[in-house]
Design a protein that fits this description.
The chain is of the alpha+beta class. Helices cover about 30% and strands about 30% of the residues. The strands form five sheets. The protein has a five-stranded mixed β-sheet, with no helix packed on it. Strands 9-10-14-13 form a four-stranded antiparallel β-sheet, with no helix packed on it. A four-stranded antiparallel β-sheet has the order 12-11-15-16, with no helix packed on it.
Length: about 350
């Protein structure tokens, strides 16, 4: 559907005697390291019969390509770039009726690596707050022409600044102001030096410099840091105070328990205390008594024998006494052993 619309537009413009302007770009990009390959593409129309590439707005085409397989574009390959390939390029094409198109917008092909790398420096801190004015400095003692600042991965074209000679450092300097900065300014930067005669021939790139722009103002950062420190100190103070109070409560509880025990003992009745004391003394003296009884039981005992006449006793209790002249019959005797202590 898009190709049909493009074709219809082209036919209408062709009927009006106007041929659309082609577009031009470089792959992998317009900044190429010396010795690397690059392809310059020119895109026009399916009705194009030939594409022409011009360099430095010359009157004669630098190279011509015939589109293949009904393609609407043609590529111009440079196998190994040199400083002679640096410069301005434009392209155009012819239709089947030999009607030329307009020239494309200019493409500046830059070749790097011809001179030594410059130095890129930043403010004391690479972390800056949003809204601050920041400047990057690029310097070199090899190139006296303009310096170029490039942000990697950025859509913006390189920035160009004229160099100034500083006698106290004996170097060429260029200052690139970036402020007031926002988070979009964060990224990796490199700078290049060039010659005044060949602006599209650059030096080797400087070392990368990364700028991580903060969304907070510097005073907010300081305020947050101080607040965090105060919170930590307050937490430590409360923890130590809690520990001291816990130890104090433990000591008071122990002393109170001992005091309660003393009061309980002193508040009991005297009779109970005396009974407890006597019981304690009795418990202490009871083993002594048992030992005395045991020792006595083991000692030899003296035995006393008593003669008992049960019959006589019985008769005396039941009959009146007899006269002395009467002789009592002989009666058996009984003896009972009596122990004397």
């Amino acid at each position: 559907m898009a190709d049909s619309t493009t074709t219809l537009t082209f036919i209408v413009l062709l009927g009006l005697g106007v041929v659309p302007k082609p577009s031009i770009w470089a792959d992998p990009g317009p900044i190429v390291t010396k010795g690397s390959p690059v392809t310059i593409w020119c895109q026009g129309s399916l009705q194009a019969s030939a594409y022409l590439l011009y360099k430095e707005r010359g009157s004669e085409p630098w190279e011509t390509r015939i589109p293949q397989n009904s393609s609407n574009k043609a590529g111009f390959l440079i196998g190994a770039t040199t400083t002679s390939h640096a410069g301005l390029y434009q392209c155009a094409y012819y239709t089947t009726g030999n009607i030329p198109s307009e020239w494309s917008d200019p493409l500046f092909l830059v070749v790097t690596g011809e001179y030594s790398a410059p130095s890129l420096s930043a403010p004391p801190s690479l972390v800056v707050a949003s809204g601050e004015n920041v400047s990057l400095s690029c310097s070199s003692n090899f190139t006296s022409g303009p310096f170029h600042l490039l942000k990697e991965g950025g859509a913006d074209p390189p920035r160009r600044m004229e160099a100034e000679w500083r006698i106290h450092t004996r170097r060429w300097w260029a200052i690139f102001p970036l402020g007031p900065v926002s988070t979009s300014h964060g990224g990796i930067y490199r700078c290049y030096g060039s010659s005044s005669s060949y602006l599209n021939v650059w030096s080797q790139p400087s070392d990368p410099l990364e700028l991580v722009v903060s969304g907070l103002q510097w005073y907010l950062i300081v305020l947050i840091g101080v607040s965090v420190a105060l919170v930590l100190l307050l937490s430590l103070f409360l923890f130590l105070r809690f520990r001291l109070q816990s130890k104090g409560r433990t000591s008071v509880a122990a002393a109170s328990e001992q005091e309660d025990r003393g009061l309980q003992k002193s508040s009991r009745p005297a009779a109970e205390v005396q009974e407890e004391s006597l019981y304690t003394v009795a418990e202490d003296t009871q083993p002594e008594r048992d030992r005395q009884l045991d020792s006595r039981a083991e000692e030899p005992q003296e035995v006393t024998y008593a003669q008992l006449k049960p019959l006589t006793l019985s008769q005396e209790s039941s009959a009146p006494p007899s006269s002395p002249s009467e002789e009592s019959p002989e009666e058996p005797s009984m003896y009972a052993a009596l122990a004397r202590h």
